[in-house]
Protein 1
Amino acid sequence: MSENGGRMLGLAVVSSQPLLWGLPLGSVSEDEPRVRLRIVEPGELAARWAGALPRRLAERVDSSGQLTLVVDADDEHGVRVEASGFGVALIASEGIEVLGVPGREIAWHRLLFAQVLPIAAALQGLEPLHASAVEVDGVVLALVGASGAGKSTLALHMSRAGAARLSDDVLVVDAGRGGVVAHPGPGLANVDACELTRLGLAPGEVILGRDDKVQVSFSPLPRALRLDAICFLLRERVADGGVQRLTSPDPRLLLAAGFVPHLDWAQRSIDHLEACERIARSVICFRAEVNPAELSAVTADRVRKRVVGALCQERGRAPA
Amino acid sequence: MASDDAHGSAPLARAELLEATVRIPEQVAHRRIGAEVVVLNVRRGVYHGLNTTAAQMLEALTAAPTVRAAVLGLVRDLGQPEEVIEADVLDMCVGLIERGLVEIERRNE
């Protein structure tokens, strides 16, 4: 198999075909998490899955009741992900191999980024969070929230104000004993169309597609960084002028921040619990109120000033 | 009071529970997250949060040879009347057992 691929989401992805929007693969060391991605014929994938006794982990239906996404698992055979129009993938139980039957190019990559590779990362002991991440004035900040909370929008606004983006919508961290490290994600963001129209494209950004959101390419930071802060985005009143530092992180918010809650392996649940413990110990947590009636630029500016400002002050530096 | 894997044993009387040993079964994991201890029953896939006092009680229960010994230790540490601590600890034991988070070994087992 010719060595294509790239780095993203904490994984060195070695692929039989080019992997778009990833960082260069370079040399892959023996001890780093890696995935071998093989594009195969549907028959080969079906043969590998034959004999599985699958349990349904997740499914999504559209407004007409049609299944659009199905995630099934079998302890021996792995995890099978199928999304109509996007493709089918079979992730081996240890997460080190993926067989893929791609759909259309951009759709296939979106399936990889939003489902397949986060699952592979989790099976290898990394921790995918439902978060976008930016680096501002040397502070690496994860914006955590449910779908529609405003993660991508706030990250987009912060990037226009000078922040560098690390990842969009899924942030994979390595919550090891030495601290929490955040890994770059693919350079593909799903952005609200109105916000993008308001802000326009930045140099180097390209619109790749549209559905309910706009898919925009961007250049993620090229290396893993220590995660300094997490800001939970909430659609509720938050004290302290809308951004509150948490002296003690709410375990419910951390536990709910997992990106792959549907993976039901016992060890996976324990890994997630341990990751949350380590994150709570070493990452400063905030809550921020996101009010849909308020301009996102205002919210982003408040979050940046309060969160980044606080950490810069503690480090004895003035924020830019 | 039955654990996840109970084979239909009769509920324990409070006196009997006081002389029993509490242990955390293999399918339960617990970690401190912030000010709470989160206890996970892996088989049920449910997370439970214990506040500081409850976490202290769980630690005492699993470290002591009997529930009664745990109660006496907590009376010392918390400075509360024994009858209050005993009632709270026994109530907590019942709750933890019902949720499959601890198992009980009766004294004569």
Note: Helices of chain A lie at 42-49, 105-123, 151-160, 193-199, 251-255, 266-282, 296-314.
Protein 2
Amino acid sequence: MPLLQTFGSASIRGYERFGPIGPAATDFQLISTTYLASATTSVTFGSIPQTFKHLQIRTTTRTTQAGTGMSYQYVTFNGDGSSSYSWHSLYGETTSKGSYSGASQSYGWFGPTPMNSEVTGLFGGAIADVLDYTNTFKYKTGRSLAGEVGTTPAIHLDSWNWRSTSAITSITITDASPGGFANGSRFSLYGWN
Amino acid sequence: MATSAITALATITLGSGQSTVTFSSISSSFRDLRIVSNLGMSAYSAVWMQINGDTTTKYNRQAMSGNGASAVAQLSTAANQVVLNSSQTYSNAFESNLIIDFLDYAAGNKHKVGLYRRNTVSGEAEAGTWRWASTAAITSITIYSSTSTFMAGTVFTLYGVTS
């Protein structure tokens, strides 16, 4: 349904959803979405098509870890849990700001997620991009922007590198706490050109 | 045939100065929304956002920014709006970019959560996350300034992302 609104001397265009605007229909496509109906420790996008240039992951998550505050989530590729990851993070948490890094780690950081005793309905959000994921000449590099505004609010900008020239065929996002992601958490994978 | 997962829903181009822009009657048929803008203000000022015309104290925001001299982390809780800047405001030139993401904007079991990035060339680079403490679907988004106006030529575009 188009949006129709005018005010003052502004102009507005409303678009029917009859097709893509500008770029081709295949330029940004949904690959799959997982919506949790029960708690799970990790979510895996497997058999990722090799037909795009880059990938984008969008999530809204909460964990079942008891307590208020935040847990963390991390990302691995192709089931690789070896020390092949490095990452850097910028963060703002209330009025505290800073950065940290890790080299030769077994995962990349994916940002904060709220714990189970936070107010009902509170989820954290994240958007991550993985560039040139099929390229077999390059190590794989990505970044995520993630945050939540609960008892322990946080905004994180993380970048990570997986030191492998393998094409990415699977991505796993894991809750760092023992509880696992709560039902209602959503994970979507997109491919874009 | 493959279908694009991102759809441009509406573009607002200001023909003259305006203190408020509103996207309304937003369909609930997408999963996420994104607003993209290149904007300038008539005078240095903050830019705020409200959802569904809600002026109550349901808005919370955590931001981090840097202006080359210092870094700032700033929290706003139980506010009447989301403030889309921290220590530096938007300037009186077309040198600010603003991208606001709304994740699961129609989910009836979630507070509405989002992310934003903005930069003002003469000011700072900033990223933040916000939460509107309501499980209502987002049907309208208002972006405004209470102390100045968006310059003529400022453009806001709303996109829907499918899931």
Note: The two ends of chain A are 27 Å apart (CA to CA).
